[in-house]
């Protein structure tokens, strides 16, 4: 019998990179390679890198260095891989460098440097592929790339223009995941609301019926598979309003991750982002009228070049009035190749940090007040972990890794991946505490 070859994988970066790693692992297993968790047992290591900000570049270069030192045979892929010269300059000994979303190129490099085993064991690979997330939730990537040109971002130059996956393929993958026990599907892309724009919203097929390649139609179809469906990275196009009724009807989770980035019209203009804060506030009011339970998550950039104290105060006012449930905020940091670097009047780092502190302090108050209102309510949660003290779970309002948690006292009888109805008994600025109902 031929001994299968072993390959190691280091996966860095965002959920989109995680999905790329999963696709590569799936193809490796489909061809009969073994996946190893140690450098020593691997005959080759693939490093899937992140290149979004400078600290991610450093982390990626370090990971490549470690893999070279510990194993010696390394293939680099992912966002930093798009800048092959940076990788090769730091680590000339890497075997190959490919960009993001390049499973085919990675497989070619693997075949070149570690020819594939003679007997493929395709039947050993489950239909849902190989996943890096826990069994009960999974990321579902619906497209790659982005057609926008936000001035602080280099993702379009790293990952290229929008390319949507055929709707039938996305639905089949979702169905396979649900069949394999996945309870929550996290829909991701660079720009989820643009899904299908590149295909002119072509009508595909699912279950023998026509289905448009479009976010609203996809969300509706995913919603009947029986898992929680959570939408991430929803760029605030007007048609986003269409999915709110689906949330109110319980078809998909009442959760919208919609990055607003700022509230000042001038700063949004400099960022090449849409919408004025009055429009956004009016839309938020409308969304809450239609779906009072909606959880709104957004991200903001603080200290963008030229941001004045008045413009930052406008952002604080927006945070106060919008009463968003979840906010991620980052200080602007120049990324090599981003056009915002050329803007005048960069904000000094100490001012950026001070503004970030003020914004997060205000948001903590907003978040604490919003979570207090949940005390006494009964809600459905999905269990992520169980230990001697109880269970750690998440509600519809909490995406994994980025949002809060629900700590369920005496929830030891629960199991990971269970849905449970719990009564909320306490809260702080991020998390909730609950008793089984
Ligand atoms: S929409 Fe997102 S991925 Fe696209 S350019 Fe803007 S920040 Fe980058």
Give a brief outline of the structure.
With 437 residues, this protein is an alpha/beta fold. It has helices at residues 15-30, 54-70, 84-90, 103-113, 155-159, 167-179, 215-222, 243-248, 265-271, 277-290, 309-322, 349-372, and strands at residues 6-11, 34-36, 44-49, 74-78, 96-97, 137-141, 143-144, 163-164, 184-188, 203-206, 209-212, 228-231, 255-257, 295-302, 326-331, 378-387, 390-395, 406-409, 419-427, 432-436.
List key phrases describing it.
single chain; five-stranded mixed barrel; five-stranded parallel sheet; 12 helices; binds iron/sulfur cluster; 437 residues; alpha/beta; globular
Task: Describe the protein.
By secondary structure, this protein is an alpha/beta fold. It has 12 helices and 20 strands. The chain has a 5-stranded parallel beta sheet with strand order 2-1-3-4-5, with helices on both faces. Strand 19 (419-427) and strand 20 form a beta hairpin. The radius of gyration is 23 Å and the shape is globular. The protein starts with 5 loop residues before the first strand and ends with a strand. Bound molecules: iron/sulfur cluster. Residues 146, 148-150, 153, 155-156, 190-191, 235 line the site of iron/sulfur cluster (SF4).
Q: If you average the pLDDT, what whole number results?
A: 90
Query: Strands across the major sheet, in which order?
Result: 2-1-3-4-5
Structural class: alpha/beta
Helix content: 25-40%
Which stretches are low in confidence, meaning pLDDT under 50 for 5 or more residues running? Answer: 118-123
Residue fraction in strands = 15-25%
Main β sheet profile: 5 strands, parallel
Instruction: From the alpha carbons, calculate the radius of gyration and give it in angstroms.
Output: 23 Å
Gross morphology is globular
- The rounded distance between the terminal residues' Cα atoms is 55 Å
Number of helices: 12
Number of beta strands? 20
Ligand names: iron/sulfur cluster
């Amino acid at each position: 019998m031929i001994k299968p070859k072993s390959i190691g994988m280091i996966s860095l970066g965002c959920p989109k990179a995680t999905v790329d790693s999963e696709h590569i692992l799936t193809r490796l297993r489909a061809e009969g390679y073994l996946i190893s968790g140690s450098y020593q047992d691997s005959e080759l290591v693939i490093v899937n890198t992140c290149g979004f900000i400078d600290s991610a570049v450093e982390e990626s270069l370090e990971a490549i260095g470690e893999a070279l030192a510990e194993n010696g045979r390394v293939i680099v892929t992912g966002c930093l891989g798009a800048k092959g010269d940076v990788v090769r300059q730091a680590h000339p000994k890497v075997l190959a460098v490919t960009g993001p979303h390049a499973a085919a190129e990675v497989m070619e490099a693997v075949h070149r440097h570690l020819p594939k085993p003679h007997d493929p064991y395709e039947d050993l690979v489950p239909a849902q592929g190989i996943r890096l997330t826990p069994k009960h939730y999974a990321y579902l990537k619906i497209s790659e790339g982005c057609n926008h040109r936000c001035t602080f971002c280099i993702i379009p130059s790293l990952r290229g223009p929008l390319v949507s996956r055929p709707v039938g393929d996305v639905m089949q993958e979702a169905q396979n995941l649900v069949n394999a026990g996945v309870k929550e599907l996290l829909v991701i892309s660079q720009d989820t609301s643009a899904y299908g724009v590149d295909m002119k919203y072509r009508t595909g097929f699912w279950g023998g019926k026509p289905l448009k390649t479009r976010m609203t139609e996809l969300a509706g179809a995913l919603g009947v598979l029986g898992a929680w469906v959570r939408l991430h990275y929803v760029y605030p196009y007007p048609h986003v309003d269409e999915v709110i009724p689906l949330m109110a009807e319980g078809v998909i989770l009442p959760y919208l991750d919609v990055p607003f980035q700022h509230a000042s019209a001038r700063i949004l203009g400099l960022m090449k982002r849409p919408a004025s804060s009055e429009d956004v506030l009016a839309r938020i009011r409308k969304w809450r009228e239609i779906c009072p339970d909606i959880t709104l998550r957004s991200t903001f950039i603080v200290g963008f070049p030229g941001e004045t104290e008045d413009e930052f105060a406008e952002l604080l006012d927006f945070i106060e009035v919008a009463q968003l449930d979840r906010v991620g905020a980052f200080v602007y940091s120049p990324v090599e190749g981003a056009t915002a670097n050329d803007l005048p009047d960069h904000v000094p780092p100490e001012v950026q940090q001070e503004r970030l502190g003020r914004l997060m302090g205000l948001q903590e108050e907003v978040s604490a007040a919003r979570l207090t209102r949940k005390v006494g309510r009964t809600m459905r949660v999905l269990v992520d972990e169980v230990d001697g003290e109880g269970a750690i779970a998440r509600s519809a309002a909490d995406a994994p890794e980025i949002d809060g948690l629900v700590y369920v006292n005496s929830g030891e009888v629960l199991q990971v991946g269970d849905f449970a109805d719990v009564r909320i008994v306490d809260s702080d600025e991020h998390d909730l505490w609950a008793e089984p109902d």
